[in-house]
Write a structure and sequence with these properties.
Blueprint lengths: L6 H9 L10 E4 L4 E4 L12 E4 L2 H6 L3 E2 L10 H14 L7 H6 L4 H12 L3 H18 L4 H7 L5 H12 L12 E6 L6 E5 L4 E6 L5 H11 L4 E3 L3 H15 L15 H10 L8 E2 H7 L6 H9 L12 E2 L12 H16 L2
Helix pairs in contact: 6-7, 8-9, 12-13
Length: about 350
């Protein structure tokens, strides 16, 4: 589902030099035989002279050569970004420092900006999250706290507790019990997500880098009397399967049951969000009218922002009345990619 957007979308991004497409698309210019980043300062070609590629290697294979102004090979995800992601996958417990990047011949500030463009967070933040995930996996296997801490590359117990608490809103030992709700990590093409489920429903689904995630987990824990433990169940498995189908482009809807924690008004808004088909967007005003309360636009916007079940309750499909990409807690870069990718569902492709 996250393949290249339609050519007209890419051309519009080229004209406005949209940095959101860094690492996602390359333009080849037929009249010059050159390929460029979409942010290249060079004069823009006519749309009929453009060919679109996912990466520099594809452009080179088609006979184009790299632009000397924007250097698409040097700063593209084909280079150090992919290398670092691959290294992180091979060594998830490694404790990365900026000095490690310098030893690899990389500038930490350049790496930080590139990862922010591609993933909405720095490489060091991604590395820390990978270590926490490793610790979470160890705890779920029944390993002792100190073993999980050391296997995840945390030198001190206090650092381990702090990193875990930043993500989950609780210290690791508070999630060890057999709670009624289970927390597990699900990987997606747009980053890791935390799923909270019980045997009947999905209660929370958030990207791990969302700043409000710890607070959301604390509130949910309070609502259920602190009964959240690490682990998964059949509902978690269903969420993971449906997310995989969604991102592969063959699962536009989710059937997993959802427990919506909020007021009657909030639940009404969230339920209406679930009725928005993939490939369709609404404004906040449209949403207010659909629930029969056209004057509640601001309340609808606030409720949209407090949604704790990302993707399954698709708050990313709500945009500004002028068509602009308004705030999204999961990051505007994700919102753009989701809306663009979902056009394939609307087109039936």
């Amino acid at each position: 589902m996250l393949d290249l957007p339609e050519p007209d979308i890419l051309y519009a991004a080229l004209i406005r030099r949209d940095p959101a497409y860094e690492g996602r698309a390359i333009v080849g210019v037929k009249t010059t035989g050159i390929y460029c980043r979409l942010t290249c300062p060079s004069r823009k070609p006519r749309p009929e002279n453009c060919l679109w590629f996912a990466d520099p290697a594809s452009a080179r294979a088609a006979g184009f050569r790299a632009c000397r102004r924007c250097h698409p090979d040097g700063s593209h995800a084909e280079g150090f970004v992919k290398l670092l992601v691959r290294t992180l996958q091979d060594e998830p417990a490694r404790r990365w420092r900026e000095a490690d990047l310098v030893e690899m011949g990389l500038d930490p500030s350049t790496v930080r900006r590139a990862f922010q463009r591609h993933y909405g967070q720095s490489f060091l933040q991604m590395a820390r999250a990978a270590r926490v995930k490793g610790a979470m996996d160890s705890l779920m296997k029944g390993e002792r706290m100190i073993e999980a801490q050391l296997e995840a590359g945390f030198e001190s117990a206090s650092g381990f507790r702090a990193a875990f608490s930043r993500l989950f809103g609780h210290a690791p030992h508070e999630l060890r019990g057999q709670g009624g709700l289970r927390a597990d990590w699900i990987e997606t093409p747009l980053g890791g997500m935390i799923a909270i489920t019980d045997d009947q429903a999905l209660h929370l689904l958030e990207f791990t880098d969302r700043k409000a995630l710890p607070d959301g987990l604390r509130k949910l824990s309070s609502m259920v009397g602190g009964r959240i433990g690490l682990g998964r169940n059949g509902v978690t498995d269903q969420v993971e399967r449906e997310l995989a189908a969604y991102f592969k482009g063959n699962g536009p809807t989710f059937s997993v049951p959802v427990a919506l924690h909020g007021t009657a008004f909030q639940r009404q808004v969230w339920q209406e969000l679930q009725r928005i088909p993939a490939g369709t967007t609404l404004s906040y005003g449209d949403l207010a009218r659909k629930i029969g309360n056209p004057n509640a636009v601001r309340a609808v916007a606030r409720t949209n922002a407090t949604n704790r079940v990302a993707l399954v309750v698709p708050c990313h499909r709500v945009i500004g009345a002028d068509g602009s990409m308004t705030g999204y807690a999961g990051g505007l870069w994700r919102k753009r990619r989701l809306i663009e990718a979902e056009r394939a569902y609307a087109d039936g492709t």
